[in-house]
Design goal:
With about 350 residues, the chain is mainly alpha-helical. Among the domains are: about 100 residues, Alpha Horseshoe (Serine Threonine Protein Phosphatase 5, Tetratricopeptide repeat); about 80 residues, Alpha Horseshoe (Serine Threonine Protein Phosphatase 5, Tetratricopeptide repeat). It is built from 19 helices and no strands. InterPro entries: TPR-like_helical_dom_sf, TPR_rpt. It comes from Gimesia fumaroli.
């Protein structure tokens, strides 16, 4: 049976060497998140002795060792494409050792490959229940739940991962991304804000917050977060352009003009068409008519046939600079292309009549 590859998986070859670690094992190609500490890893002195004793008993239990052998055989059958036989062996292993997490993890892979969605989800739920204190597994299982359309379970797993490791910004970024995908941008913003409060020196969280605010047209807030990003990456003008755009839309034309100017001076080809228009309009609003005229002339030379409003702005610049002949030429040329445009007619009426 051909295997679906929609979810990225580890190579199964790593399974055999890990499976005998028992509860801390599970080597399944579907689950790259199943990387665990080795069985002989030292426990913290603060761990309850009863937990240590339980884990040691599990590793030395003859039932557990027998289950491991069956899981190993299941892995071998799986790697040979014998999925049904692997599934039978896993069922036998679970009868011997019902709590063996390896059976759930490998069965999740088998169920996915065999198209058994319900069993796949059951296996994920079993892994989640068996790993309440493993932030890495909670995060990865949450991703799989999202991919399977189980949004609420995915969110619950990611929240658990964040609670376990609040200083790991990856979990907050992932949960925020999932919230955004489902249109819950306010919740995404709150998750990112809490994470930034926990990790104020983060370089990635302000980027994510800037993007969320920008998508919500919260221009002033977005510009603040992008300012943080620019402080982290002063030579990266991609983020400076984001800040300049947000400042422009927020009505802070002076600050926007300053940021656009820095971008143009350091990388003249970096500004997009819309950014050039915003740059020119900011200059016009600030009374820097010469800069505005130069920018609009440059845009017109490249995009003349597409941008009526740029020709209107060019004409206005020329009128305000007292260049009546140039203004008349610009407006007359534009009216040949857009003879019925009412705004052009209004601007044409502003051109001083030659004496």
């Amino acid at each position: 049976m051909a295997r679906n590859t929609a979810i990225p998986f580890m190579l199964l070859s790593c399974a055999a060497s890990l499976v005998c670690c028992g509860c801390q094992s599970v080597p399944v190609s579907t689950f790259a998140f199943l990387t665990q500490q080795p069985a002989n890893a030292k426990h913290s002195e603060t761990d309850p002795p009863s937990v240590d004793l339980l884990e040691e008993n599990e590793r030395t239990s003859p039932y557990h060792r027998q289950a491991n052998e069956l899981v190993q055989q299941a892995v071998n059958h799986y790697s040979n494409g014998e999925l049904n036989q692997a599934k039978i062996l896993l069922a036998s292993a679970r009868e011997i050792d019902p709590g063996h997490i390896g059976t759930f993890e490998i069965e999740a892979q088998l169920s996915y490959d065999m198209g058994d969605r319900n069993q796949f989800l059951q296996s994920l739920r079993a892994i989640r229940a068996a790993s309440p204190n493993d932030s890495q597994k909670q995060s990865a299982i949450g991703t799989l739940f999202f991919q399977a359309g189980q949004t609420q379970e995915g969110i619950a797993c990611l929240k658990q991962a964040i609670e376990l490791k609040p200083y790991n910004e990856n979990y907050a970024l992932k949960l925020a991304a999932f919230y955004e995908q489902t249109g819950r941008t306010e919740e995404a913003q709150q998750i990112l804000l809490r994470a930034l409060h926990t990790s104020p020196g983060s370089k990635r969280l302000p980027i994510a917050l800037g993007r969320v605010c920008e998508s919500n047209q919260q221009w002033s807030q977005a510009s603040i977060y992008y300012a943080m990003v620019v402080n982290h990456f002063p030579k990266n003008h991609v983020w400076r352009k984001h800040r300049a755009r947000c400042l422009y839309h927020a009505g802070n034309y002076s600050a926007a003009f300053e940021q656009f100017t820095i971008c143009q001076q350091n990388d003249p080809e970096s500004l997009s068409l819309s950014e050039m228009i915003a740059f020119g309009d900011a200059a016009l609003r600030l009374g820097d008519l010469e800069t505005a005229q130069d920018l609009f002339d440059e845009i017109s030379a490249v995009h003349q046939h597409q941008l009526l409003h740029v020709e209107i702005l060019r004409g206005l610049c020329a009128i305000n600079r007292g260049q009546s002949i140039s203004a008349k030429s610009i407006i007359d040329t534009a009216r040949k292309k857009w003879p019925a445009d009412p705004t052009l007619l209004e601007v044409a009426a502003l051109v001083p009549v030659e004496q």
